[in-house]
Amino acid sequence: MISRWTVVVDRDDLTKTEVLHDELSPELGDCEVLLRVDRVGLTANNVTYGVIGDLIGYWKFFPVSADGRGVIPLWGFADVVDSTLDALPPGTRVYGYLPMSSHLVVRARLTSSGFVDTADHRAPLPAVYNSYLVTSTDPAYDPQQEDLQVLYRPLFMTSFLLADQLADNDFYGARTVVISSASSKTAFGTAQCLRGSGVRLVGLTSSRNVGFTESLGLYDTVLPYDAAVDVEPSVYLDFSGSADLRSTLHDRLGASLVKDISIGLTQQKASADPRSQFFFAPDQLRKRAADWGQDGFGQRFGAAWRAFTAQAGEWVGIAQHSGPDELVEVWQSVLAGKTDPSTADVITF
Ligand SMILES: NC(=O)c1ccc[n+]([C@@H]2O[C@H](COP(=O)([O-])OP(=O)(O)OC[C@H]3O[C@@H](n4cnc5c(N)ncnc54)[C@H](OP(=O)(O)O)[C@@H]3O)[C@@H](O)[C@H]2O)c1
Fold first, then answer.
1. Per-residue model confidence as pLDDT tens digits over 111-148
2. InterPro entries attached here (predicted)?
3. Which domains, from first to last, does the chain contain?
């Protein structure tokens, strides 16, 4: 038997966690592969998976038999330790969506870049989360940059597509882009993609994060949340999910606020508002795959990703952690918003 640990979280109170231990049978069924989770990142994005877990179905990826509790998904690397498929022998390293657990059994259907987990419970869930890349055939993989990949790769695709959607629509006629939670990685990735496109970038952030956000050198202006923005034609990109901030901006800018787009909710409150349009990355992805072809898309995204990762290591340091107890400590700290944006957390299992 294989000893497995799993961190479970109370779905109604994300501060309540427990490390469960159980024994996993080494018997694998048809097409099954046993993965040992190795290295993951943890940011506010993972907290959002918990906050809107019921709404979007994030609790369904890694079901656990623990009443009212669930497993938070993380992005990272895992190694095949046992396999029924010749194409995925032990030692194969893969990147994808992983549980807060030492092990994961997947039912793999091979693809050109790796495999898809076809486990019954995952079939109705969005395909993007069910695909795993084998690192040895992934052109974007760099073994020296695993930390940057686990932290930024799931976020930067959104940054890239969001910036592209704005440019594709000529910024809806605005020349200023106002961005909340400007210190977050997805927000500053978007700002980096928008640099040089002729728009003024205004970052809004908590008072304590103004210094860090300015230090990035990505925004033309950085303001604390309680400062007034200039009244001029603007697009608002909301990563905070703050209903109060949205109302303040609409009251102040009025008709000058030409577009209001919701991307995140770092403040952990889901609040739908008809004035705001939800950003759905797959729509822009589909459009650009049609415009540019898969290869053209891959080349453009690859160039943007390389430009971003060349700088990201200078902007944000990395704190290394290991094991389930430290994973729980990082979870509590990110959940409570105590983390310093100049440091990002990577956990080895
Ligand atoms: N729709 C999509 O496709 C998509 C994709 C990726 C990410 N996102 C969303 O974008 C948001 C940012 O994710 P990230 O992983 O980039 O974040 P991150 O880098 O971990 O962001 C940290 C920042 O979030 C704010 N924050 C964190 N915890 C908080 C708390 N408890 N209370 C209030 N503010 C808090 C603070 O920024 P400030 O002080 O600057 O507010 C903090 O510096 C998340 O909501 C995520 O789900 C959406």
1. 999 999 999 999 999 888 999 999 999 988 999 999 99
2. DUF2855
3. 2-138+316-348 (3.90.180.10), 149-283 (3.40.50.720)
